[in-house]
């Protein structure tokens, strides 16, 4: 009896190992995933914990020329808090309201770095403030970025771009931003030695990086440091509108509209998979994820793929899901897709032979699920991952691909 028991246990263990190798990542999973950001991406272990709150709607007035700089106390991406008094020795102070996600803001990051470098020994202090509430930011507004505007992801952007100026977060209650009144990102405010506003507006008039170098702001800085009046103290600014903490209805409406979209699943065979991989019909950057309802990591990470489609779907990008469930489990797969509001192209392999699926997808794939590929329109695979996806790295691979890009 004892021998029989151990024999059965041995068989069960071997079967489990085999099943794990064939269509399972065999990696520990977690249901309390907090962020896509690896610890190595952070500048410092900040003690500040963000807590964005809805803000009462109000009319926002941009600070008048000649007005004193409103004080603030805000956390920065270096883990410190900053107030106006921390910059009291500067002959001039440039406060630039900017953010992570906006393509225009990203287009000007290099110019802000350049201005900081060029004037650091001339008495100018540059600081950047993100005025946006993460609560009001839509997935559909993130199509030019790998990051949203929350505090942790500001830390990542600081490190990625090697910012040489303090980058402050005001997304919890926007108290400081409401006093300054930035209408868009980026929006520059220049103060003289007495902290009176002498210039407000754009850095320059051409968004495309490499064509200008912040001339409008530089002219104002030069005049201010020389003790002269700024000849053109106010210019219009262009960029993404400030995401105030009361702009929640649009987000709610957009989420509800997405949930109402029809969710379908279609059969696909080896020939169909070949066509899918050749990617000649879409002229889009195509992301394919092979998953199954019985695969724990697949189920956990699937909602993040829905987010990717919402982020980049309006651009030259499409997400396609391919279920490795048995053909007779099609209804189960569809039920899951509907629960996750998977309103994009979904397939289920029509052949019960999983090895045929493996060979059709990628002969080099060992069969462990999930499996994800990023494919150009000519069929070239530019990124692939066996097992759970690092969505921080995947989003960066998508947005930095020449078909997508960070700027208009």
Q: Give the name of the CATH superfamily of the largest domain.
A: Glutaredoxin
- Find the structural class using helix and strand composition: alpha/beta
Mass-distribution shape: elongated
Order of helices and strands: HEEEHEHEHEEEHEHEHEHEHEHEEH
The name CATH uses for the topology of the largest domain is Glutaredoxin
Tally of extended strands? 15
CA radius of gyration: 26 Å
User: Which ranges are low-confidence, i.e. pLDDT below 50, for 5 or more consecutive residues?
Assistant: 1-44
Q: Roughly how much helix do the residues carry, as a percent range? A: 25-40%
For the biggest sheet, the summary is: 6 strands, mixed
Q: What would a concise description of this structure say?
A:
The protein contains eleven helices and 15 strands. The strands form four sheets. The protein has a six-stranded mixed β-sheet. A hairpin with a 5-residue loop joins β1 and β2 (81-82).
